[in-house]
Amino acid sequence: MTPESQSTREIMERFNSAFGKHRPQDLDDLIGEGCVLENTAPAPDGARYEGRDACLTFWKGLASSTNLIFENEEIFAMGDRGILRWELRWSEHEGDRVRGVNIMRVRDGKIVEGMGYVKA
């Protein structure tokens, strides 16, 4: 793995961990200026957030929701791109879950792009 890919993977792991541990404050050092986020909802294109503050506010809201359980399926990095496959549960009922993926871009050690997609 190249040094750039390793750095991207480490950032993806830290990002993912903030959601798993419900620690929104851990996102503060991970999101870059000019970040762009396209959420999974509403269909078909998802809401778009532009700028560090908008992206950070959205992601912190998710990370702080203790009723949401994110389970990591896979983290992959190649160069400045990171891919997170995950499952999100919001109750113990089998049907109350969704699987998805985030495709991320990292620049200068910060996430600057996040595109979210879900299986529907």
In words, what does this structure look like?
With about 120 residues, the chain is of the alpha+beta class. Strands 2-1-6-5-4-3 form a 6-stranded mixed beta sheet.
Briefly summarize what is shown.
The chain is an alpha+beta fold and about 120 residues long.
Structural key phrases:
six-stranded mixed beta sheet, 120 residues, alpha+beta, Nuclear Transport Factor 2, Chain: A, 6 strands
Indicate the topology.
Layout lengths: L2 H18 L10 E8 L9 E3 L1 H12 L5 E10 L2 E9 L7 E11 L2 E9 L2
Parallel strand pairs: 1-6
Antiparallel strand pairs: 1-2, 3-4, 4-5, 5-6
InterPro entries: NTF2-like_dom_sf, SnoaL-like
Protein name: Nuclear transport factor 2 family protein
Largest sheet: 6 strands, mixed
List the uncertain runs: none
Amino- and carboxy-terminal Cα gap: 33 Å
Structure annotation, total helices: 2
Strand order of the largest sheet: 2-1-6-5-4-3
β-strand amount: 35-45%
Cα-based radius of gyration, to the nearest Å = 14 Å
Order of helices and strands: HEEHEEEE
Tell me the CATH architecture.
Answer: Roll
Number of strands: 6
- Overall, the morphology is globular
For this structure, the CATH topology is Nuclear Transport Factor 2, Chain: A
Q: Strand pairing plus helix content: what structural class?
A: alpha+beta
